[in-house]
Amino acid sequence: MFTNIDTFLPYILGGLTTTVQAFLFGAVLAYSIAIVAGLARTSRLAIVRGVATVFVELFRGTSLLVQMFFFAFAFPALMPFTMSTFIAGGLALGLNYGAYASEVVRGAVLAVPKGQKEAAISLNMSKFQTMRRVVLPQAFRLMLPGLGNNAIELLKGTSLVYFISLADMTFNANILRSSNTSLVSQVEIYTYLLLVYFVLALPLVFLTRWLEKRASKGVSTA
Amino acid sequence: MTELAENLEPAREVIVRYNNVKKAFGNNIVLNDLNLDVYKGEKVALIGPSGSGKTTIIRMLMTLEQPSSGTIEIDGEQLWHKEVNGQLKDADEKHLRKVRGKIGMVFQQYNLFPHMSIMRNCTEAPIHVLGLPKDEAKERALQMLQKVGLSDKVDMYPSQLSGGQQQRVAIARSLVMQPKVMLFDEVTAALDPELVGEVLEVIKDIASEGETTMMLITHEMDFARDVADRVLFLDNGLIAEHGTPYDVIENPQSDRLKSFLGRFNSAH
Amino acid sequence: MTWDWAFAFEIFPRILQGVGVTIGATFSAFAISLTLGLVLTLLRRSSFKPLSLTIAGIIEFIRVTPPLVQLFFVYFAFDMGPFLTGAIVLGVHYSTYVSEVYRSGINSVPKSQWEASRALNFSPVQTWRKVVLPQAIPPIIPMLGNYLIILFKETPLLMGIYVTEMMMIARSIGAETYRFLEPITIVGFIFLVLSYPCALFIRYLERKSGQIPGSAEKGVKA
Fold this sequence. Notes:
The structure holds 3 protein chains of 3 kinds. By secondary structure, chain A is mainly alpha-helical. Chain A has one domain: MetI-like fold. Helices cover about 80% and strands about 0% of the residues of chain A. Chain A contains 9 helices and no strands. Chain A has helices at about 5-15, 15-40, 45-60, 65-80, 85-110, 115-120, 125-155, 170-180, 185-215. Chain A starts with a helix and ends in a 6-residue tail after the last helix. By secondary structure, chain B is α/β, with parallel strands linked by helices. In chain B, the strands form 3 sheets. Chain B has a 6-stranded mixed β-sheet with strand order 8-9-10-3-11-12, with helices on both faces. Chain B has a 4-stranded antiparallel β-sheet with strand order 2-1-4-5, covered by helices on one side. In chain B, strand 9 (about 180-185), helix 7 (about 195-210) and strand 10 (about 215) form a beta-alpha-beta unit. Chain C is an all-alpha fold. Chain C has helices at about 5-15, 20-45, 50-65, 65-75, 80-105, 110-120, 125-155, 165-175, 180-210. The longest helix of chain C has about 30 residues, at about 125-155. The interface between A and B is medium-sized, with 23 and 30 residues.
């Protein structure tokens, strides 16, 4: 057992670039969306709140894989232009995890004590200044652990691009499996694959732990 | 102090005026038809049981809560309204920001910005709201921190200070903005008893300088007697008694005020 | 290509046939999560360090690696059939999250309750059964409910190991007819219709018990 590491592991790692690209694409999109949608959900304007709420509920209420299939196979039928499968996968990852992460952003903004806003008003800061100088810097620290956890979830989610035939690590592992059908080989292949994902996730795990510790110490220490 | 109030009589210029102000949260009326003039430089203490409406009075002035009806004037200008062609309309954010600069407030929970150093707490608004150059803002802040006895703490963060020290920073932060009217909302209520004194001393110091108008909500009757020119006793959303500290604190008329004061040994 | 209502109505019953499997897999997996989650929580509290650390390590490994890969691993390593594999793998995967929920519930029981139990000379089992768990479980019910919904939306993954749930059926229809728009949209619609009311109900429970809404949801899983 575990004798084919020389051939199996490099083949699986052939999909590493796609996995990492999908992760980065999804993360950038997800966090941008999270901030916009999260703040929009705390807006005083009902219309802004409404649009953001519909977006968040829609993408949380359906399923990531459903969304990925939609963007990859159904969307092209609706749109006059074609979109690469990679963009479709990244879009689904970004929108889905963005919807979840927006809840983290919203929660953090709401968790900043009301007295902070009142103090800003008493110093005659504008709404924008209050947000930028008082609320967001404090909310940011509160949301970091949640966003870290979100990144771990996103990394796991990238494996779903296998279903839309993007050659990520999971996809490559399944190709290997189809040509190495003995039980021992199959166990070996997926063991390597799990370990690679675990190694990729570790930095995110430690980062999140560290952020959690920092956040629990309170926002007051610089 | 009574003499002082009378001495002010000739130059009495109104700086804050409440006209028939009402405030209700749903069906719950917290303030019923308030009419009140506060004069330039005057120190007004508001006392009364919790829920009597005293906090609402100063929170409306700080534009933290909007009156249900009535008007408030500050320094000759409408606070919550704007005069358009002789008619009063609800004020927009721009108008609020213009008039609110005349008012400063110190909160029960200090509300310092935890992510900023003491110095930045005191310079953030002067730089970004008043548009002062950094050096000037710092100089002003340092002056005020000296006044509250904390000029050696400029690089620390709020969490590194005691409650009393934080509250003194909050006072300095408000002073740097040079408000015409300063509001104090039970500023010692959240403090450990041994820290109350240092904060009250700082407020007394500022009060003795004279020019700033102050409205103070307090449960410290000795302090109210020492600092205030006038004391208002609020009960059930109404000013039930008012007058000099001597009138109100030493010679209460109503049973309600007597029983309220009876809870504070310091009143006798 | 535009939306074809006739086609949509034609395939709707066929997709609906997969709902039973989807829901069955969800509840089987949830039952496993609830049971195994509690076991993991208790083992992790063991004062025998090697045991509690091993359990913590296993939980971490399962939590941060993709459930899809775990499905492949178990499916090809053990001959249990698709449905059973799916229920077990998703159940085990989410038991790591559920154990965290139990842990937070148990930690929120005041220390004095343990001390009082000792003072009354309860045995450890009695303390757990009669004092700690009855106080720890009710406040975490909304959080557990959230994981039920998340599990539900995770079931399309089972298509990877040939469980004939809704997504699998939708994909087959797409492959047969070259129309993906309708089948995928229908699946998304069914997910939304089934999960959204549950989500609203859980938020209602959360509000009633005074918890922060969404604190146990994906991305804040901690």
